[in-house]
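Give me structure tokens for this 106-residue protein.
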Amino acid sequence: MGPWRSIIYMAAAVVTHLHFREAPDADLFVRAERQLVPEARISEGIGGLHIVQVTPDHFILVILGDDADLLEQFAAKVGSPWMLEVEPLLTSPPERQFGPLVATTD
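Here you go.
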């Protein structure tokens, strides 16, 4: 099955593209750091949470975890309140994709 077998079955990622109508207020991400990051740190099975700014109005949220089910649970429990604030600011619904990690530095 190849050298990636153990990684594929142990870790997954959810990647969410957020396309805003205009550049969001920086306070939105300060609140994300206060709300989401501490929860990610204490949630068993969550390996990391990252927000990447691609352009002034396009951000990518990357969450790493043990498996896709765990990531779904984290998104529903922790991410939903923040996303309720974000969704009205977007040009379209968030684009969310789940997949296994096939290579990592960890």
